[in-house]
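Researcher: Let's try something more involved. This one mixes different molecule types, so please make sure each is placed in the same coordinate frame as the others.
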Amino acid sequence: MATAERSVVLPGETIDPSLIPSDPKKALRLGPGLRHIPPTDIVPTVAGQLVTNPVKNSMWIEYNSNRYIPSQNDIVLAQVLRSATDFYLCSLSPHTAPATLPHLAFESATKKTRPILSPGQLVYARVALANRHMDPELECVSASTGKADGLGPITGPGCAFDVSLGFARRLLMARSREDGGVGVLEMLGGEEGGGLAFETAVGRNGKVWVGSESARTVVLVGRALQETDRRGLGIEGQRRLVKKLVKEMR
Amino acid sequence: MPLDTSTYNLALLRVDGRRWNELRRVHAQIRTQAAADGSSYLEMGHTKVMCVVTGPSEPGPRRGGVAGGGSGGAGAGGAGGKAEVVVGIVIAGFSSVDRKRHGRGDKRTLELASTVANALAASLHTHLFPHSQINVSLHVLSQDGSLLAALINAATLACVDAGIPMTDYVAACTAGSTSTYAANDEGADPLLDLNHQEEQELPGLTVATLGESDRVAVLVCESRVQVSRLEGMLAVGVDGCKQMREILDRVVRDKGRRMIQEGTVEKGVGLDDMDVD
Amino acid sequence: MPREAEPSLNEKQFVIQALQENLRLDGRELDQYRPLELTFGDQYGVADVTLGNTRILAKATAEVTVPYADRPLDGIFTIATELSPMTSPAFEVNRPTETEVLLSRLLEKTVRRSGALDTESLCLVAGQKCWSVRVDVHALSHDGNLTDAACLAVVAALRHFRKPDTSMEGGRLTVYTPAEREPVPLSWLHSPFCVTWSFFGDEGELAVLDATWLEEQVRVGSCTISLNKHGEICQIAKLGGTPVDAVALLQCTNVALTKVKEFSDLVDQKLAEDLKRRDKGGFMAELRAENDR
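Model: All components are placed in one shared frame. Result:
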């Protein structure tokens, strides 16, 4: 994190103005959990940790909830429910309104070459549209470049695991070890794990897909992730966990 | 009146004069109801059951909790790519000696319905009929033991009549043991096809197998029995199921032959399989 | 009613693929139970069973009522099961789902019909007064294998339970408060436990114990076997599903018996521990009870 500034806020609280980054050139960017009430009030809408980034002139709230609320540009792991006339209905979390994924929102998809997805299939997608009063819309292609950038239907041997939303977010951080305190994936692939070969797709909606040719590796990685999340392990604890699991599974 | 089993070992005959490995008289008919897609009537001794099958058809509006619906496998009805098997059982008030009213939410009836539904769903090729429903409605007219077995057999026959593709017959019967649980008699012999009186007094189980194989689709034991006696009872039960399958098969073939003779269906390719004289 | 959320295709396929390699998602053996914990409440007759993430609470209570007219010499014993929306959004209050009906039937057959509790001992005055013992089963969290956990909770709760002591003098029935006389345990005859096998594969050739919720959604069939430690079957329920070889089922029964013996030992041990915990100064209390008489 670019700032050490971290304070706990509750919904509706007034935020200490000294905490709000004030870059004269850039506009202030508000992330999840904050709401701007014109003209000048910024109010938290969830309980959590207020995080600010003076370099980007942005602020948001880190919180760990059970229910995923889609917001634009989130990368999610969605499950196809069924196909409608020109879009797929996907579920981001159980018992919530489904998201739509247009048939043509894939890389170089046309009416004839669009991918056919069966119900239950997992899709790695980006939230393209998340309005309060509409179902969220997903896409598997970058609107500006027309490239998939790793998004799309998930195939190949592997399994999805449920983790908490906060943990998924920590995994998705650019430097997850330093900023998020999660090094478990690096360790599994590194010397502690004996160089396991696997790939992952982390969704903000609290799902992690782990793929590998060996089912044993998938189970091991999945268990390591879930244990780390459940027990809130630090870096040292994660190292011990990885060593223990690797020994157990041999 | 308690059942006297002391003569079983001596005379080798049971209360109704059967030997230990004898089935009761089984009488069955198919295509008894003109209006239904498939129907059957089955008697096992004095246990009499009627079955009507409609479907596979588009699922209608759900009747609130009437059908003790079971579902086949994982993807059941609705969004899944399989037909849903919905079973409803009506037990007539006059079917047993004590006239008891069975409410709609009777848990025992719901359990029976769920068992029949799940047993059929595993044999029927439900994946051929996505987004549809197979309605099986069973009516119990008279009860004299082996009710679950009779229900399964009747439902199988009706599904055959309805022309729903299936792996094989699901044939069921009951098996028991000649001495009560408390007697703890190691030398107890197994019995086939229990009637009501025997079912009340002796330990017993219901077995349903798939076709001629030894694979057990349903195994229900509701009485206390030593684990060492299970093997014998199960073996006799599985054997009884094979006999039952023969009987059901004969009923279907007889009906087929008669339909050809009456000219209801044209003589076709399948004629040789039908054993037409 | 919201449908239960189905697992994704990828998960379903992986669970089966892993099982074929003798692997489970939580690293257990195929015939291994999740960590089983049993704790008793401060009150008599409260048992809390945790099996991995599945948690069941059972509470036994007793009151004096009038016996049924057709059974004047028997007390009343009921087991009430309720799966509330707290467990999963797919469960609704007052509208029993198939899961709930089957669970309640299984407990009924396993505990009540097998004669685990001597109902004749609950009779106080023939045809007029008897104890009505009721066990309420609450599923607090559902991660598969509700049956085994619920059965264990019911048995533990009933064995832990103490009903108020009573006496008959000249046609007068007296029910003593716990302060007057130490409550007495129920007349318990044997302890049945459920062991549920789940079957996987096209022919149901893979048999797995203690399935998690994800595994339960993928399985092709299941078989619940209830036994006590003396090797007596109280109930078997394989209610449909993919047919399984008869010999394999017999094998399952034998393994179930060893598991049941483990459960039986666990309950005995926990009950003994609980008794010890309660017995602080118990000797004095017992002396006082002696003096009262």
